[in-house]
């Protein structure tokens, strides 16, 4: 990205001297973007010129090691806080719901995040803030202009829900300014991404937030449907690349000194089999069904997270219950049909920074996906209706995610190697002249 030379030199010198500055920052997330889809774009037949600008004009990670579980909401919260799920509290996409009464509710509400965010950092640095569809953003504090992510049914009333929870009057104003209605909360297709991109551009050009978060969901949605690297996924990424280009143009016009960062939350792997742990848990009497086939009680719940399960006990201090669950899991781990790669518990869960209320965490082999409760008659394993998944333990190379950054003070063409996801938030905080004292990793050094 080109900058006025005197400004770039001055800002770069200031950064090397360690001087804090409240730089404007635009943070874009492309859910499910694999780093090699940008770094090896030509070899993969991808035309993503705007994403390639980060590689040529900025710094980039060869891969980002994420969190457990490697799914959207825990990862995006770590990207905003610099701490793992065990600390910020967003331990899965969906809430803990052993009796299935929350109708598939997700961790939409910012109050469930217990950690300081980059929105807080920007606010304290004197920057105005904005958000378009970032996960865990309903009623987020210190967001000046907020278009939060939430849905319930896919009914048109979801749009009214978003409007009611957004900054008062913001949806109506941006609809008037852009000439289009805002996207439904559950819209995860390219049309939804295009609309949200237009609304983000409107925010940038008319309100000029000093820190703006923008989230694109369509690539992830299509990778689930058709698999990572599929023709459909490639076409979606090329279209999202255009939206990224539009945001770069708007941001650099509004803030010539802006730093623009692009992230993803996880990688992707092809899948072919669903593993239904409810089957053996029902058979062992750990989950009880009523005459209507619905769950009436659960001593142990297999809480699926893509390619893994958190096993949460109703009585975690009950040694006999824990031993019973362990015996079931040990038997499954010895059964090739269960596709279990690893089971961890206690100290290993804590070391991974994963759900502290999980007594066990089960990692499936790549190619298998954790099934939710549907009914009590489904077998342990059956063909997967989706072709792509994430959520496996973060050590899997397939789960590597993306970090790229460009702007004044960021050296061009700089490979950062592999980075830890927890280091991204403190890096952006430092650029905005603030800190995240609880972040577990230091800010990334871009070198001289």
Fold and architecture overview:
It is a single chain. The protein has 448 residues and is of the alpha/beta class. It has two domains: 5-93 and 105-268 and 400-431, Alkaline Phosphatase, subunit A (3-Layer(aba) Sandwich), CATH 3.40.720; 273-385, Gyrase A, domain 2 (2-Layer Sandwich). Helices cover 34% and strands 18% of the residues. The protein has helices at 5-16, 36-39, 49-57, 72-81, 85-88, 118-124, 157-165, 170-178, 190-207, 218-226, 231-254, 278-283, 319-333, 346-352, 424-431; strands spanning 25-30, 59-60, 63-65, 129-132, 145-147, 211-216, 259-263, 269-270, 273-275, 287-289, 295-298, 300-304, 308-313, 340-345, 360-364, 368-370, 381-383, 388-389, 403-406, 414-415, 418-420. The strands form six sheets. It has an eight-stranded mixed beta sheet with strand order 5-4-6-1-7-19-2-20, sandwiched between helices. Strands 12-13-15-14 form a four-stranded antiparallel beta sheet. Strands 16-9-17 form a three-stranded mixed beta sheet, with no helix packed on it. A hairpin with a 5-residue loop joins β10 (287-289) and β11 (295-298). The longest helix has 24 residues, at 231-254. It is globular and about 60 Å long. Mean pLDDT is 94; it is low at 1-19.
CATH architecture of the largest domain: 3-Layer(aba) Sandwich
The CATH superfamily of the largest domain is: Alkaline Phosphatase, subunit A
Largest sheet: 8 strands, mixed
Low-confidence stretches: 1-19
pLDDT averaged over residues: 94
CATH topology of the largest domain: Alkaline Phosphatase, subunit A
Instruction: Estimate percent helicity.
Output: 25-40%
The total number of structural domains is 2
Q: What is the CATH C level class of the largest domain, in words?
A: Alpha Beta
Strand content: 15-25%
Contiguous helical run count: 15
Radius of gyration: 22 Å
Structural class: alpha/beta
- Give the termini distance in whole angstroms: 18 Å
């Amino acid at each position: 990205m080109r900058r006025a030379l005197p400004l770039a030199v001055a800002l770069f010198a200031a950064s090397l001297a360690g001087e804090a500055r409240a730089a404007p920052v635009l943070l874009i997330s492309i859910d499910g973007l694999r780093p090699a889809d940008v770094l090896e774009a030509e070899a993969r037949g991808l035309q993503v010129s705007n994403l390639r600008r980060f590689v040529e004009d900025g710094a980039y990670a060869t891969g980002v090691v994420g969190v457990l579980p490697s799914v959207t909401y825990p990862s995006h919260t770590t990207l905003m806080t610099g701490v793992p799920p065990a600390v910020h509290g967003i331990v899965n996409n969906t809430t803990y719901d052993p009796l299935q009464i929350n109708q598939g509710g997700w961790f939409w509400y910012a109050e469930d995040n217990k950690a300081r965010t980059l929105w807080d950092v920007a606010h304290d640095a004197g920057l105005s803030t904005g958000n378009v569809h970032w996960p865990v953003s309903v009623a987020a504090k210190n967001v000046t202009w907020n278009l939060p992510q939430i849905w319930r049914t896919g009914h048109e009333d979801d749009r009214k829900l978003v409007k009611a929870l957004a900054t008062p009057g913001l949806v109506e104003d941006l609809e008037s300014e852009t000439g289009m209605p805002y996207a439904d909360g559950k819209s995860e297709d390219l049309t939804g991404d295009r609309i949200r991109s237009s609304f983000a551009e409107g925010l940038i050009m008319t309100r000029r937030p000093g820190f703006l978060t923008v989230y694109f969901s369509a690539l992830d949605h299509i990778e689930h449907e058709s698999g990572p690297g599929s023709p459909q996924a490639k076409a979606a990424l090329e279209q999202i690349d255009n939206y990224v280009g539009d945001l770069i143009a708007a941001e650099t016009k509004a803030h010539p000194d802006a730093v623009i960062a692009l992230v993803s939350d996880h990688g992707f792997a092809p899948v072919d089999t669903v593993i239904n742990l409810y089957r053996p848990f029902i058979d062992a009497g750990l989950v009880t069904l009523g005459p209507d086939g619905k769950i009436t009680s659960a001593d142990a719940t297999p809480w699926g997270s893509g390619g893994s399960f958190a096993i949460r006990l109703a009585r975690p201090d009950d040694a006999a219950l824990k031993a019973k669950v362990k015996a079931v899991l040990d038997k499954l781990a010895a059964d090739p049909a269960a596709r279990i790669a690893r089971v961890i518990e206690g100290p290993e869960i804590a070391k991974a920074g994963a759900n502290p209320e999980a007594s066990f965490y089960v990692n499936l082999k790549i190619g298998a996906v954790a099934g939710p409760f549907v009914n009590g008659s489904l077998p342990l394993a059956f063909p997967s209706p989706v072709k792509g998944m994430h959520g496996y333990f973060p050590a899997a190379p397939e789960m590597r995610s993306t970090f790229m950054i460009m702007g004044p003070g960021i050296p061009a063409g700089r490979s950062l190697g592999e980075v830890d996801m927890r280091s991204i938030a403190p890096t952006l905080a430092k650029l905005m002249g603030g800190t995240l004292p609880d972040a577990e990793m230091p800010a990334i050094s871009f070198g001289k």
